[in-house]
Structures are given as structure tokens and as C-alpha cells.
Amino acid sequence: MAGFINKTAWDESAQLAAERGPFPEYENSALRTRGLPPVRNSSVITIAPTGTISRLADCSSGIEPHFANAWWSNVLWKGSDGAGEAGERLLDAPKSVWEALRERLDDEEQVRAVLEQLADAPDDAERIFTENGIDPAHFRTSMLISPEAHVRMQAAWQKYVTNSVSKTINMPNSATIEDVEDAYYLAWQTECKAVTVYRDGSKSMQVLETGKDSDTADAAVAEDANMDKNGFLVPRERPAAVLGITERVRTGHGTMYVTVNFDDDNKPFELFTAIGKAGGSEPAHLEGLSRMVSLCLRSGIDPNAIIYHLSGITSEPMWDNGVLIRSAEDGVAHVLKKHLNGPNNPGEVGAKNDGVAQLGLFTTPKFAESGAAYAPSAGQADAVQPSGDYQRMHLRADCATCPGRVIHQEGCMRCLDCGYTKCE
């Protein structure tokens, strides 16, 4: 089908070229090089996003089955970025499901009741269909199709589509990082021009969803969480003694020591910092940061969220054994990430073979394993430790005393605005 559409489109474009002339750059284009006759268009087919259009046309939104057999549509208020409250929650389902239920049930109330069951409990779809005399094999959804099958279907169409194919691989909430990586890698291997992956439930609010109303889910979470009478999280009490580990991190403000203590499940429980040879407000800032991180950890906040918000903060970057520590806050994030699952190989954050801390500066990505031109040469992965002024040649940082930026000259950092200087 895709090949037929492709051939027909180019034939029509050739006829238009005969009437009006080819597109201006035809003579210099790859189309002419490949032997294609003069055509009016440089590209003839694209499969654009059709989320809203498909709702109007009552069909699936792409080259795949429907998202679910029934779902709740969250109509968001104007200006919402997807993280706010939904304005209204509407029940929706594919036309084929509506028709199948109407053929077997007496009235619309019964049909709606079954659709609500399908939307609230998508994992029970086979049982719900069977109880109502419908063969569930006729109603496969995109969630039941493997990511590989999603990509290969897109690749089959991409071969005949001259622009991109808008395609979303809907993955269940249980999808792993490796599942997402494999999907993108296969899309690259099969020469898809673009691909989108969405893991169900990865946003606090999404336009289409299955499952119970969020109010019900919130109530269940509140029961399990340690909350006070006003609904606020209550931090866990600190035991008299806890086990921990201390890491040394070299930062642009001096050598910092980060201590992470763990609970009985080997999860980060609290964090302390100390920094030497740092004057001014730096120790006070780190004291405040440590207290807030500890409060978050003891209150049950996901450590990954803490790492995400601290990583990349930049003040005076410095290399520490092959790892770029952009600031003291960034160094705290490195240490916390290294020990997410308990004390992990005590040693410096930038220690050799530390897979977490190295941040993949010279690691071989999956694409390079297949012979991509940018794969690192043998031995390059070991040569990750610049020294002296070379460390700072291309690093820019904010001045510690004014809003200006510092430059690096002769082993020192100097602010051109206020004259602040710091030498190692």
C-alpha cells in the first residue's frame, strides 16, 4: 500500500512538472542523480501528527491499533502544560468497540458501564470482553504490541515516505530504560527518520489515560504515606546511629567531603557536606543544601528527583579524575547518584571504572558499536584526565562576587568586570 501511494504521488508530481516545470533545485538534487524524471515537488509524502484529527475522524491516530479499548480523556484548562489539573474527564472508546457492545447489550447505560470497566481496568479487557460475548482477539491495543513490532511497522512505511512518519511507541508503565534505548536503537538501524516513545504514566497528567480516577489513587497514596492531619509529609525520625560513607570531591571552591548515610534498606537517608579552604558564604550555602537534601530524603522524596535538580548547576567548574564537577551542588548530585542503592565502592567520585561518575565522557554508545564513525579509538577511554590549564581552557563560570563571567589566564580565574581573581 505504501509503495502504491509513493509511486502514484511521484507520477502526479511528474505530470505537474510537465505543466509548470520542476521545483527550482531539481537539477542539483539527489532525485535527478537517482534518475527520477523532472518533478514538481522535492518531497511528496509525510505522515504528520494526527491526534486531534483522528478523534474527529473516529479512527486510530497512526499506523498502529488504538491506545486502549476505552480510555479517559482529560480536557486540560487553557494554558496548562500537562502538569496541572484536568478541567474535565471524558469517557471515550474506538468506534469498533462501541458498535460491538451495542450489538450485544440492551441499552446505552449498559454499554457505558462496560466501557468504564475497560477504561478503569485495561488489564482485565480479555475477561470483560469474554463476559459480554466478544472475542478479545479482535481488539488488540498498542500496549499489547512489542516495541520492536511498533518500530518495524514504522520502518516498513518509512521506506516509501519521503519525509518523517509521526509515530508514538506507547509503552506500559513497567517499561525500563533499556526498553526505550532498544526502541530508539532499532529505529536508527531500520532507517526511520524519527520516532517518539511514551511510557504510560510518566507525566503527572496526560491527555489520554486508563485506570481509576486520580482522586482515588491519591487517597490510596495518602493512606500509605507518613502524613500529618493537614496532609503534609512528616520526615522520618533519625535513629541514634546510622551507617554511611564519605566521598572526596574536588570542586572549583575547594576540596569537598560529602557524607551519605543510609537507612536499614540501604537507601540514602541523610547527607552532610564539608568544604575546606572556602571563605565567604560557601559553607553556609552547603549547610543549607545539606539540610534540605536530608529533609527530602527523610520525607520519602525520590532521590532521583534531587539528583535531577542539582545536576548541572554551574559556578566554578573543575575536573576531578576525569569527571567535570560544575559546582559544589553538582558534586553532591554525583555522590548521591553513585550511592543510590547503598554504599558503592568507596573512593573518589571520579575514580577510574566508576560507571556512574564517569558520565559516559568517553564511553562507547550503542550506535558506535555498530561501526559509527564517531566511535572512540582504542585506549581513548583511559585518556580522560586533562591537567593544568588545559582543564579550564573551554570552561566559563560565573564570578563569585558579581554577575560577570570569569576567564582563565595563566592558571588563574579572573573576572573582567570586578577584578576578582582565584588561582590554584
Walkthrough of the structure:
- This protein is an alpha+beta fold.
- Among the domains are: 2-33, no CATH class; 237-385, no CATH class; 386-424, Ubiquitin Ligase Nedd4, Chain: W, CATH 2.20.70.
- It contains 13 helices and 14 strands.
- The strands form five sheets. The chain has a four-stranded antiparallel beta sheet with strand order 11-12-13-14, with no helix packed on it. It has a three-stranded antiparallel beta sheet with strand order 2-1-5. The protein has a three-stranded antiparallel beta sheet with strand order 6-7-8.
- β12 (405-409) and β13 form a beta hairpin.
- α7 (147-158) runs parallel beside α8 (177-189) and α11 (303-310) runs antiparallel to α12 (328-338).
- The longest helix is centred in the first third of the chain and has 19 residues, at 2-20.
- The model is unreliable at 220-224, 347-365 and 367-396 (pLDDT under 50).
Poorly predicted tracts of residues: 220-224, 347-365, 367-396
Approximately what portion of the residues adopt beta-strand conformation?
A: 15-25%
* Arrangement of strands in the largest sheet: 11-12-13-14
Q: Per the principal axes of the C-alpha atoms, what is the gross shape?
A: flat
> Could you tell me how far the N terminus lies from the C terminus, measured between alpha carbons in angstroms?
67 Å
| H-E order | HHHEEHHHHEHEEHEEEHHEEHHEEEE
Largest sheet: 4 strands, antiparallel
Structural class: alpha+beta
Overall number of strands: 14
Query: How large is the count of helical segments?
Result: 13
Helix content: 25-40%
